[in-house]
Amino acid sequence: MSDHRDVTLVLRRLVRASPARVFEAWTRPDELARWWGPSGVECVGAEVDLRVGGGYRLGNKLPDGQVLWIVGTFELIEAPHKLVYSWRLEPGPDTRERVTVQFEPRAEGTEVVVVHERIASAPLRDQHEQGWHGCLDGLARLLGE
Amino acid sequence: MRSTQKRSREARLDAVFGALSDGTRRRILARLARGSARVSDLAEPFAISLPAVCKHLDVLEHAGLLRRERDGRVSRCHLDARPLESAEAFIERYRVFWSGTLEALALYVEKAQELADQNLPSR
What we know:
The complex is a heterodimer of chains A (145) and B (123). Chain A is of the alpha+beta class and 145 residues long.
């Protein structure tokens, strides 16, 4: 039962730069390390193996000092327009979440569209892995829930 | 103590997400959002048997999204939307994370662009 979820989140943001430039910022580790994460979260590590089947790891240091890693594998790469990759939190359960990022050309620059699919709640089988909730709770506190 | 609370919250979220993952159950919820209904009324729009509808109702009830009430020999179903709020709160965390991340991207890329434009005014 815990595998049958299909909750999708869509976010859009206009960036005043070309798709090629935004794609580069999204995929180059040295650049990711300088901007990734919301205000209050520090990117403490970025590794990107930009090829289909290649992996990525992003370290997110939360205000309480806890580090939450976002990891996954690239499923589709169409530079500089589209990226599809799996998404998992570490420590956390083995979920099937997937992120699609599109870089759509606009007169003013690029509209970045993020589609985050198959968002799952923490399955019961991972009772011992409290990191997941700790991380999400840390984020929630940080973001003023 | 605290982890027991967390686990029961996880179990509730699991049940809610599971309940929402099925199109028939979402349509039943949409119908109940317009008002309470008898089981037979709920079954009517669907080309499935009454026992199959009852199974869906059991799933919704287990998730806390549906309450059944005896009205003589007939049982009426009511929507209880409160568990949806917790599921939404879960999604909301990701929403806030992503909007903050996209904001940071825009700030970073546009600032870098500005500096490049200043350094190369003739380009």
